[in-house]
Design a protein that fits this description.
Blueprint: H1 3-20, E1 32-36, E2 39-46, E3 68-73, E4 94-99, H2 116-129, E5 135-141, H3 142-153, E6 158-166, H4 178-188, H5 192-199, H6 202-211, H7 219-226, H8 236-240, H9 252-267, E7 272-279, H10 285-294, E8 298-306, H11 310-313, H12 315-331
Parallel strand pairs: 3-4, 3-5, 5-6, 6-7, 7-8
Antiparallel strand pairs: 1-2, 2-4
Helix pairs in contact: 3-9, 4-5
């Protein structure tokens, strides 16, 4: 074969592989809604040929006894859209469900306080009403706190836990660097925090679009994330979240919850997968070392360079790591 032809073929193969690994802005999933406590919760639900289809299950809201359900939980200020490039990697192992937390994404925005407890009420109701069993949690940011809490109270319903940039323990001021301390104190200030987050839309325009992701998001991606929050009033959920972080024990209700599940994570034998990037923001090198030392039945995987929203920088690495890990778990 002609040498130049071989080189051209190899080049085209590389380009094809790169294109196949591109980060898509498309959200090619059917939107579904469920009524909970008088509000509509948006979610997507995916199956593959290798799993049980919904129509093959007598109760279409229920899992098959053997079927795994991957439950994807996002954080602030994102939505199920965060998982769009990762979901295809897990479908062959069961069904994949990604929810928009109450007040976020395409879910309704009822007149509630949007505390951690409010979010948990809707999440727990969602799992119960959908009769989701054999759960593999895939979690990020505040979604991890909600998921860890649920898992610690419902251990028999959890088959595995995947977490990244997660809240694994209560925060102390000493854990934060100088800039982080300034930001968190401003977030919690009643006037400055409101102006920064609700009026100036800091979490969408600055933290998500500029600080938390290494690559430049497309116009389509930015629009999808920004659309749920067009007004000051609509941004209440993303304004409340940073105030819910327990720092030096306050707010106590959340400090107790996170402390309890932090201790539980050290003793439970549930299979766990920690995915981390460098430099990271919540999960940094010292956190990876601590978690690897403290947690039982844990695997960890480095997915590449990334900050906080690593699903937007490293979705394929995340997907492949989950696929490999769950394949080993199933074969045990």
């Amino acid at each position: 074969m002609n040498k130049n032809l071989i080189i051209s073929f190899a080049f085209l193969l590389q380009i094809t592989q790169l294109m196949a690994q591109s980060i898509s802005s498309k959200f090619p999933f059917e939107s579904k809604y469920i009524d909970l406590h008088g509000s509509k919760i948006h979610y997507i639900e995916e199956y593959s040929d290798a799993s049980f289809y919904a129509e093959e299950i007598k109760d279409k809201n229920a899992s098959s006894p053997e079927q795994l359900t991957f439950l994807f939980l996002h954080g602030n200020p994102t939505s199920s859209y965060l998982w769009r490039n990762i979901i295809p990697y897990v479908k062959e192992h069961g069904r994949a469900i990604a929810i928009d937390l109450i007040g976020m994404g395409k879910s309704d925005k009822p007149d509630i306080d949007y505390t951690f407890q409010d979010h948990y009420v809707y999440l727990e109701a969602f799992i119960k009403k959908k009769k989701i069993k054999n759960i593999v949690l895939v979690m990020h940011d505040w979604g991890s706190a909600l998921g860890f809490h649920y898992a610690s109270l419902n251990e028999n319903n959890i088959k595995g836990i995947v977490f990244m940039e997660a809240l694994t323990k209560p925060m102390q001021w000493k854990d934060a660097n100088f800039i982080e301390r300034i930001l968190f104190k401003r977030f919690r200030h009643p006037k400055r925090g409101h102006k920064m987050i609700a009026k100036n839309n800091f979490f969408i325009k600055t933290f998500l679009f500029k600080v938390g992701v290494k690559r430049r998001l497309s116009k389509e991606e930015k629009a999808y994330y920004a659309n749920p929050y067009p007004t000051i009033k609509s941004r209440k959920p993303i304004e409340i979240w940073p105030k819910e972080i327990p720092i030096e024990g306050e707010p106590k209700r959340n400090y107790d919850i996170i402390s309890n599940y932090a201790n539980w994570l050290k003793i439970t034998d549930i299979p766990k997968l920690l995915l981390y990037a460098k430099p990271g923001m919540i999960i940094k090198k010292k956190d990876v070392e601590r978690i690897e030392k403290e947690y039982k039945n844990l695997e960890s995987a480095y997915v590449g360079k990334g900050k906080h929203y690593i699903q937007e920088d490293r979705p394929h690495e995340i997907g492949k790591a989950i696929d490999s890990w769950i394949s080993n778990i199933i074969n045990l």
